[in-house]
Write a structure and sequence with these properties.
The protein is mostly beta strands. It has a single domain (about 1-140), classed as Electron Transport, Fmn-binding Protein, Chain A (Pnp Oxidase, Chain A). The protein has 2 helices and 11 strands, in the order E-E-E-E-H-E-H-E-E-E-E-E-E. It has helices at about 40-45, 60-65, and strands at about 1-10, 10-15, 20-25, 30-35, 50-55, 85, 90-95, 100-110, 115-125, 135, 140. The strands form 3 sheets. It has a 7-stranded antiparallel sheet. A two-stranded antiparallel sheet has the order 6-7. The chain is globular.
């Protein structure tokens, strides 16, 4: 799962990404956010964003962050998890994240209801080892997740 983080002085926001694609060889990341996302213009103006990935937390917690697309997020200390700061931008990153990338936004396009952001990876950190995910009946799972089929 991918979580987007942004911070600008006292304001921050974290939410799951609508769509994304990472192209490692040229170091490019594409991100798609709804144009109604209250943070999208801040990201475009600052030209900075952090994306983190995880397999260490349940999807319900991550997708609850989706409510932050269109309204102010809660105070960061009220989140149901701890955060640390990214190395360059000092943006909040969930401590359960296995890795994160700090991106410099170099372009954006609005092909409809979403804004596509184009960013260069300027820093990438592997924080903790992650399990390999695999596809199983509509779900991404990893060994040891405790998932039981109903």
């Amino acid at each position: 799962m991918i979580i987007t983080s942004f911070s600008d002085h006292e304001y921050y926001n974290m939410f799951p990404m609508d769509f994304q694609g990472h192209y490692p060889e040229p170091g490019i990341q594409l991100l798609g956010l709804k144009t109604s996302n209250i943070t999208v213009n801040r990201i475009i103006d600052s030209r900075r964003v952090v994306v983190s990935s995880t397999d260490q937390i349940d999807s319900k917690t991550v997708y609850a962050l989706g409510a932050h697309h269109s309204k102010e997020p809660p105070p960061i200390n009220n989140l149901p998890f701890e955060t640390c700061e990214s190395e360059i931008f000092n943006f909040p990153v969930p401590t359960f994240s296995s890795s994160y990338r700090e991106l410099e936004i170099v372009g954006h396009h609005i092909p409809g209801s979403h804004c596509m952001l184009v960013g260069y990876v300027i820093d990438a950190k592997q924080r903790i080892n992650s399990h390999s995910s695999f596809y199983y009946i509509h779900r991404f799972e990893y060994p040891g997740s405790g998932y039981r089929d109903i």
